[in-house]
Write a structure and sequence with these properties.
The protein is an alpha+beta fold. Helices cover 19% and strands 58% of the residues. The protein has two domains: 47 residues, no CATH class; 151 residues, Porin.
Length: 199
């Protein structure tokens, strides 16, 4: 993971002359020189302080009924992690964008008209597709694996389509390399919302 001083230096360089960024990031000598200068100017002890927002997820799900009360669900989810780093007198926005595939088992607890309440457990794997700190693109290569327990409320839009809102308590077995909500709260709350299609 790149150090906070190095990322701060890249943000400064990107502000003064963005055209130099590709050459610097692809050239080992330039990268090492910037790291040495940044660490001399910003000691590691002054690493940035992060404030993390609650993750937000949107998804499209497919659900298959195993019994009248129990269903198996998978789909595609997008998750946004936003943090603010305060470092060397500046504030940098960090934005991480993930795409994930969940597998969940849920049970219906209550239905009335078009509304329903349910709960369940599941697992998910996610890949970071974009990561930026300030104006600098960062690397976040590792897959994120998690397990979760959840409850939710859904509203039936048609015979096979539901709109859902689903808070989940998630445990992340792997952490992001960049400081994020997940590094400080491997056990945390995520809010999901989206459309669910019944098969």
């Amino acid at each position: 993971m790149a150090s906070a001083p190095y990322l701060a230096a890249l943000n400064f360089l990107n502000t003064t002359d963005p055209s130099l960024m590709p050459r610097v990031k692809s050239n080992t000598n330039n990268t090492q020189a910037i790291s040495a200068a940044a660490n001399a100017f910003f000691p590691e002890s002054s690493a940035g302080h992060y404030t993390h927002d609650l993750p937000l997820s949107l998804g499209l799900s497919l659900r298959m009924e195993l019994t009248p009360k129990i269903g198996l669900e998978t789909g595609l989810e997008y998750t946004y992690l936003h943090s603010v780093e305060e470092f060397a007198g500046s504030r940098l926005n960090q934005r991480l964008h993930f795409v994930g595939i969940p597998v969940r088992l849920d049970a219906s607890l209550w239905t009335n008209g078009g509304f329903g309440v349910y709960a369940g457990v599941g697992a998910k794997v996610e890949k970071c597709v974009s990561a930026t700190l300030g104006r600098v693109a960062c690397e976040e290569p590792r897959l994120q694996w998690s397990a979760e327990a959840f409850g939710g409320i859904q509203y039936q839009l048609s015979s096979r389509t539901h709109l859902y809102f689903q808070p989940a308590l998630s445990w992340y077995f792997t952490k992001t390399d960049l400081p994020s909500y997940r590094t400080e709260h491997p056990l945390g709350v995520t809010l999901h919302a989206g459309l669910r299609f019944d098969l």
